Amino acid sequence: MSLPPGFLDELRNRVPISQVVGRKVVWDVRKSNQGKGDFWAPCPFHQEKSASFHVDDRKGFYYCFGCHAKGDALSFLRETENMGFMEAVELLAREAGMQMPARDPEAAQKADRRTELARVMDEAVRHYRMQLNTSAGAAARDYLARRKLGIAAQERFEIGFAPGHRQGLYGALRARGIAADLIVDAGLAARPEGGGEPYDRFRDRIIYPIRDQRGRCIALGGRAMAPDAPAKYLNSPETELFDKGRSLYNAGPAREACGKGAPLIVAEGYMDVIALVEAGFGGAVAPLGTAVTEEQLRMMWRIHPEPVIALDGDAAGMRAALRVIDLALPLLEAGQGLRFAVMPAGLDPDDLIRAQGAQAMARVIEAAEPMVNLLWRRETEGRDFDSPERKAALDKTLRSLIGRIKDPSIRTHYGEEIKRLRWELFGTRRPKAAARGGSRDRTGKWTPPPAPPLEATKASLLAAAAPDVEDHLREAMILAICTAHPVCIATFESQLETVALTDPDHDALRHVMLMHAHDAPEAIGKAILAGAGAQLEKVMALPHVRIAPPVNPTADVEFARMCLAEELAKLSARRAVRTEIEEAMEDMSGLADEGVTWRLSQAARACHQADRSKLTDTADMGEDRAALSAHLQSLIDGEVWRKKRP
């Protein structure tokens, strides 16, 4: 559906973004300035205690300085409520009292159709709830009692019962004036292949309604009462409402619980989720009878950054957990991972809670392991590595798995952890010289360790700002120019928001600058002195800052802008060079070839030294980066890691 020009702007102007976001967060009253439309809160997208999530009513945008989530009111609704774009627009329009423009007839018909199907599903839920309390539902009530599922839990999860009648639900819904096509299209009934009246899909089964994150009933799950039923569990077929690969049982209540600090626990079935919730683990969900899909995994991450996979402790449960690992590897991002709660053998969460109580389950959740541990266990348990060939095969497999991780930082950390585990498995020992603190070169000659640094050296900026002094000094220069010429802050606001600062003092000073970026220049200066005076004093006391021409308040503003743009570009370029070298080393090194790793590290160090000797205040980092890249490529093409024959 297309919207007329200006409609979205008018919508955003009518509904302050703080009003939308305020339903999901608690504002930090000390840090916020509500009169100016400036709001701060803990971020709703990742777990934190500090107020690093900024909402600006004047701009209509939010930004998190921790996880870098950003957007407007519509994107906030889409991310937190799992809405489509038009759903978010319609919700805001209702809130603003704006009339939605005429919709495309075909799209409107589809939306109306889904609304009708959801209404039919609610009617079915009410029917099955009533049937549970009839004489026909006596056996189902006894079963639920044996599973320790009380009346309150049954009401909470709207559990019902489908008697064994062929057309019990179909007849009841038809009697209420609901069309046969709607009943069939909702997945509640099926048409016989030979023709005739539709028949109920769910018969002689306990019914579990499945709702989406907005609370609409989109499907049903049924647990067979007869022990010889063809399928113990039966779900609704896929419909216009229900896509089982994009749905999770109990997703809506779990999202609310996780927003209040509960962990997200991924179990295998309905009863596991119900048992977990009743035991106090409100953030519990389950896939719907299939292996976890990529869409379900992304849904989990939208609810919580680190879901805990708590599948059954039998062989099938472990296989399911390992499939999740293969699915998750390419999708991992910083702050977005998985942990695995290994259930006791032969038990699922429901069994464990009924047998040993909620505390036993809490201990299992607290002991959840990171994904890398299960990955290692899968590739090594029950196998012998008593030959170089077998060890090499393991290395190849692990390199292949780690190579599937797209995020370079996570890939590096996985490589380091796998290397540590490999050393433990193969019993690699440190050389004796290394144990004494020295080292041996390739000829076997031992070199004693270097002398300890002097106290004066330890106190120097070089030691304090390690591992990269130049980045630290360049950050200080950027902040000093902004302080001397506050009009530059608004111009470079987006770059200042996203640049990573290595010093907490720099970060604090940057925060104050961005909070007042659009104030008058003299007001910005006063705000910086009031909010980050100590941090500013440290920056301005640095020798290279004191003598820098653009830091002089009397300097030409255009000159200061040019210098600030150059400093930001150089900082970005240097970091890109380092990332390029690190990724090349990671790709070339391998997990077992220490010689390759050492030689490439020497090549990178040589590049770095050459770079430092060449840099001047007016150097062009774009050219330096190209030269470094070309030099590194020549080293790789020349296979510098291979020992050359004399």
From TrEMBL:
Q: Name one Pfam family in it.
A: DnaB_bind
Say which domain of life the source belongs to.
Bacteria
**Record SMART domains:** TOPRIM, ZnF_CHCC
> What GO molecular-function term can you cite, just one?
DNA-directed RNA polymerase activity
- Looking at the UniProt record for this protein, which Gene Ontology cellular component terms does it annotate, in alphabetical order? cytoplasm; DNA-directed RNA polymerase complex; primosome complex
Q: Which cofactor does it need?
A: Zn(2+)
- ZnF bounds (CHC2-type): 43-67
InterPro entries reported for this sequence: DNA_primase_core_N_sf (IPR037068), DNA_primase_DnaB-bd (IPR019475), DNA_primase_DnaG (IPR006295), DNA_primase_Znf_CHC2 (IPR036977), DnaG_bac (IPR030846), DNAG_N (IPR013264), DnaG_primase (IPR050219), TOPRIM_DnaG_bac (IPR034151)
Q: Which GO annotations describe the biological process of this protein?
A: DNA replication, synthesis of primer
Q: What is its EC number?
A: 2.7.7.101
Q: Where is this region: Disordered?
A: 432-451
UniProt entry tagged with the keyword rRNA-binding: no
Class of the enzyme per the UniProt entry, highest EC level:
transferase
* Keyword Zinc tagged: yes
User: How does the cofactor bind to this protein, according to its record?
Assistant: Binds 1 zinc ion per monomer.
Looking at the record, the residues that make up the Toprim domain are 262-346
Q: CDD domains from the entry?
A: TOPRIM_DnaG_primases
Regions annotated as coiled coil: none
Give the keywords, sorted: DNA replication, DNA-binding, DNA-directed RNA polymerase, Magnesium, Metal-binding, Nucleotidyltransferase, Primosome, Transcription, Transferase, Zinc, Zinc-finger
Entry text on domains: Contains an N-terminal zinc-binding domain, a central core domain that contains the primase activity, and a C-terminal DnaB-binding domain.
Described purpose of this protein according to its UniProt entry: RNA polymerase that catalyzes the synthesis of short RNA molecules used as primers for DNA polymerase during DNA replication.
Oligomeric state and interaction partners are given as:
Monomer. Interacts with DnaB.
- Per the similarity annotation, which family is this? Belongs to the DnaG primase family.
- Protein name, UniProt field: DNA primase
Give the source species.
Answer: Phaeovulum veldkampii DSM 11550
This chain is encoded by the gene named dnaG
